[in-house]
Write a structure and sequence with these properties.
Radius of gyration: 21 Å
Oligomer: single chain
Shape: elongated
Strand content: 35-45%
Helix content: under 10%
Length: about 250
């Protein structure tokens, strides 16, 4: 089954082309340029996940809670269960918040029954943006973890590029069968810097492309990386994350 994430789509008025006066719904269809299958969409600013056919008709719907919003992705597994993320609609009192913030990951069956749920949203860490269901049934999750000023300076961060906190990413693999975290990878363990030789991670940045320059930016936004996508290659056993604030894709 193919999985697509689309921004706006409505109901199908025609299977070929629609007249120019139509401004909502499926505006055009070119079968020779599209793939067979369904589209899974999870629009922002509402709580529900929709499965739609190529004509934009809703063929199935998973109802979310009115008090929740996407956090930010959903995936349909081969067994027909949905893996969806969510966050509270109101985030004003959250200790960690930036665009793309998440909180909860759920597995729901076809009838929308919650089979499993996991939440990470506190004053030390928060899920954000994306997850990746793995072939073994585990789930890769992307999260921020908070470091205070002292911890961050000790890692070699330029103090002029600091607010009260610093949020490097970390990735973990969780087994939903027993709620155990079976693997972790932390950005803070893979750093280099050439700013302060008295602090940790000092070295020649250009000689270590496998490490991350903790001072690679020019502002003090605690959401330093804003990684927003994660994927897994089962043949190579590699993880890919997209790091837009670095204009890079990292392979782990």
């Amino acid at each position: 089954m193919y999985r697509y994430f689309l921004a706006v789509i409505g109901i199908c008025f025609s299977h070929v082309f629609l007249f120019s006066q139509n401004t909502v719904g499926l505006l055009s269809s070119v079968p020779s340029q599209s793939l067979d299958g369904y589209n899974l969409i999870y629009p922002h600013n509402q709580p529900h996940v929709f499965l739609m056919d190529a004509c934009g008709e809703v063929v199935h719907r998973w109802e979310g809670e009115d008090s929740s919003r996407p956090g930010n992705t959903a995936y349909l597994r081969e067994d027909g269960n949905l893996v969806m993320t969510s966050r509270p609609a109101q985030v004003t009192d959250d200790a960690i918040w930036a665009g793309g913030g998440g909180a909860t990951v759920e597995i729901r069956d076809w009838d929308n029954q919650i089979l499993w749920s996991y939440t990470l949203n506190n004053d030390t860490a928060r899920l954000h943006h994306d997850i990746e269901p793995m072939p073994n049934g585990n789930i890769l999750m992307l999260a921020w973890e908070t470091l205070d000023q002292e911890e961050t300076i000790e890692l070699g961060r330029d103090p002029s590029l600091l607010e009260d906190q610093f949020w490097p990413d970390y990735i973990f693999e969780i087994n939903p069968d027993n709620d155990s975290i079976v693997w972790e990878w932390h950005v803070k363990d893979h750093l280099i810097q050439d700013f302060d030789e008295s602090q940790a991670n000092f070295g020649v940045v250009s000689e270590h492309p496998e490490l991350i320059d903790i001072n690679y930016d020019n502002d003090s936004d605690p959401d330093w990386l804003h990684s927003n996508a994660i994927d897994y290659h089962p043949v190579l056993d590699q993880i890919m994350i997209c790091v837009p604030y670095f204009d890079e894709i990292w392979i782990i």
